[in-house]
Amino acid sequence: MKKLLKVFKFLKYIKQVYEVKTFLNIPLYKILFYTFSFISDFLYFCYILKMKNVAKKVCPDSRLGGWLSILDGGYIIYIIIRYLKPKIVVETGVGPGGTSSVILKALSDNHKGILYSIDLPGFDSIFYPTIGKNYNIHIPDGFDVGWLIPPWLKTRHILILGDSKLKLPELLEQLRDNNKKVDIFLHDSLHTDEHISFEFSTIFPHLNKDAILLCDDVNEHWSTEFIRICKKNNLPFIIFRNRLGISIWKQ
User: Which secondary-structure segment (H or E) carries 119?
Assistant: First the structure.
């Protein structure tokens, strides 16, 4: 029975991957090639595992975490970036840097692109209890923001510390002054309707044609604001594993 359940879960996962493939029109042979490139990087995965083990020893608290798992979206984000080969990726929310490391690995494998990350460390533990939600410990004592990012991938990373309400507009103005637009945007910072709405409304004027919009934790527990935004702006979208929102900027 357990084996049948595992088979069912695997087939359901493959089905969802195929839905993303169809949504973004990614050829199957490229999916297979990128998948092999991803899972065969033993050095990358060994580093991630080693750092998680070290962090758990330093911080045995069960709340340690907050990174997007490979199956819940990391793999799909890697595939998307490998296929689209973006020049500029912007993300809000870094924490341990699990998603950032996946993005940077994809950019490195593409030999192209820069990731701009904005993070306000420690804010989750202050804000989420006020609205009755649990929070993760993203950064144990003695660790830096993005501690899961392998050192050899940091050459394509620009980390900006501060509130995205201030730092995101500043970054976008700097990019505009240099005639640059954003190819992929990922929201993974404060998951409130108001904050999500702010970030997407701020990023819209600075997107390239057919840019990809990503949003983590799109579900009833956190927020479905991403879905409302997509519907309001007539943007096609898909939700991967009841968590990762994916949309295409068609303006």
Answer: strand 114-119
Strand ranges, E, within 120-228: 157-161, 182-187, 207-215
| Sheet arrangement for strand 207-215 | 157-161, 114-119, 88-92, 182-187, 207-215, 244-248, 237-240
Q: Determine if the pTM surpasses 0.70.
A: yes
| Cα(114)–Cα(110) distance, integer angstroms | 11
Contact 181, 174 (CB under 8 A): no
Residue 245 forms beta bridges with which residues? Answer: 215, 239
pLDDT (mean) for 66-79: 86
Is the distance from CB of 184 to CB of 104 less than 8 angstroms?
no
Q: 61-65: long-range contacts (C-beta < 8 A, 24 or more apart)? A: 61/137, 63/134, 63/135, 63/136, 63/137, 64/136, 64/137, 64/140, 65/96, 65/136, 65/137, 65/138
The Cα 163–Cα 167 span in angstroms is: 6
* Res 1 pLDDT > 80: no
Q: How far apart are CA 134 and CA 78, in angstroms?
A: 28
